[in-house]
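A.,

Following up on our hallway conversation. Structure tokens first:
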């Protein structure tokens, strides 16, 4: 199993992701502005993370990890420094720390701005999608990381179904537990490296969907 670093470790997706990663036998270093809010489980080390800080500091927090997750989000309050540049800094830090595997939580159609106006849910978060557009593009074009980008539709706090649909389609929703499970499952799925996975609720078991990416 792996030791992973999670940026944005106190958020809704991160909380479920941490549970899934620990259940699968991984070790987690979770970084957040308020580390006291990170879920407390055996195998989880909370650390204070400031995405406004420098890359060297971020790299030191990641030292010894095998993979990095970026699931941080300012929920519209700090899009440039958290959702855009904060993400870029974690990529640069991962490379500085010698970490190859990098998994990004993004947003449906973040790389296709021509789609945003077609769906009310996306039109309502245009500034967020702009931040993700630049972060995703930087990851793909300006790093040598073994990346996977997961782009879910609108997140909901409904119970997970354990089933998804991958690929483009009508903008629907994703329960947070299902998004977290996909993020956890792609960690050791080498077939997802270099891939952008758009996901929505669906009828395919998550393990099968990941296997067939």
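Then the amino acids I'd put at each of the 213 positions:
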């Amino acid at each position: 199993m792996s030791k992973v670093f999670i940026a944005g470790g106190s958020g809704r997706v991160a909380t479920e992701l941490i549970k899934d990663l620990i259940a699968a036998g991984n070790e987690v270093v979770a970084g957040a502005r308020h580390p006291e809010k990170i879920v407390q489980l055996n195998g989880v080390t909370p650390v204070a993370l400031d995405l406004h800080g420098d890359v060297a500091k971020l790299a030191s927090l990641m030292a010894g990890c095998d993979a990095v997750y970026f699931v941080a989000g300012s929920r519209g309050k700090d899009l440039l420094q958290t959702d855009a540049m904060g993400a870029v800094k974690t990529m640069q830090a991962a490379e500085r720390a010698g970490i190859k595997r990098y998994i990004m939580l993004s947003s449906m159609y973040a790389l296709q701005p021509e789609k945003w106006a077609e769906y009310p849910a996306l039109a309502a978060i245009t500034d967020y999608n702009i931040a993700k557009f630049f972060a995703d593009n930087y990851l793909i074009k300006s790093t040598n990381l073994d990346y996977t980008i997961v782009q879910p539709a609108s997140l909901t706090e409904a119970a997970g179904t354990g089933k998804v649909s991958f690929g483009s389609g009508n903008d629907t929703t994703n329960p947070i537990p299902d998004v977290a499970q996909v993020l956890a499952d792609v960690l050791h799925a080498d077939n997802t490296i270099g891939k952008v996975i758009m996901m929505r609720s669906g009828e395919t078991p998550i393990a099968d969907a990941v296997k067939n990416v």
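The longest strand covers residues 146-152. Curious whether your intuition agrees with the design.

B.
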